[in-house]
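Suppose you are handed only two things: the residues of a chain and a line of SMILES describing zinc ion. What would the bound structure be? This form records exactly that question and the answer produced for it, so the two can be stored side by side and reused later without any lookup.

QUESTION INPUTS
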Amino acid sequence: MKILTLDVGGTAIKTALMNDGVMENPHEMPSEAKQGGPVVLQNIQKIIDACEDFDAIGISTAGQVDSEEGSIIFANENIPNYTGMRLKNILEEKYHKPVFVENDVNAAAIGEAYYGAAVGQKDFICLTYGTGIGGAIIIDGKIYGGAKGVAGEMGHILVHPDGLKCGCGQRGCYEQYASCTALVRNSFEANPEWGSGRIIFKEFYAGSKEAEKIINDWIEEIILGLVSLVHIFNPSCIVLGGGIMNEQYIIDRVNGRLQERIMPSYRCVEVKHAKLGNNAGLYGMLATVQQKIK
Ligand SMILES: [Zn+2]
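ANSWER OUTPUT
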């Protein structure tokens, strides 16, 4: 079976043909998301038009997705006029092939579950640390979507009541303290020359005690959210994604500190970094389509 997979983000649309599960011709094009949903849709269609032979389409996309209807429930200002777009209907009418749509964080989690860091795990959670923090909950091998399919917004767990203001309207959300953006903000405040995650880790590895403190304080913020999640979901594994998580130091320290903070009966949990990187969404759509049409 040939499944055309796409991963629609704020900057690029990544795509690859999955031919009997083997990735062929991975490439990407600008999504032109700032120009709005209709332009993104045109770019999706350009990719599909360029693919001569496929049996189904799987699309992972930014935004909150109704995966049953294959539509965008809500997209923020990163993709204007994308909210409400019925991707599945539009593309099935045009191409006469089955189309499946999933939120990008969920798709990446499914990818990790079937082809990456969480192979063999049935109950786990996935968090991605970047500008904000995204999350996905996998229960019994399936995404837990909640009543409207939008469960897993772990970035908005309240960790510091009356704390920093968040884009969601609340104060003190997890992503204001534990995202990659928060680390960079704290680093920059300490030293205006430390303006990226890469630089602060370079300083840390070079022996800077100040950089070490900033990083360790930030890791405590990461753990704050994870402690609650572990006690709610009793996961066997937590997969941490986002480029910054390639720093093994973070994974090791989170593993150690988390075990100290949680109750003994939850200590089976293992923290791992995501394995599939930028391709997690594409593999997730491969697994999603395989499940839906087998
Ligand atoms: Zn928030």
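WHAT STANDS OUT: The pocket of zinc ion is lined by residues 156, 166, 168, 170, 173 (CB under 6 Å). The chain has a mean pLDDT of 95.
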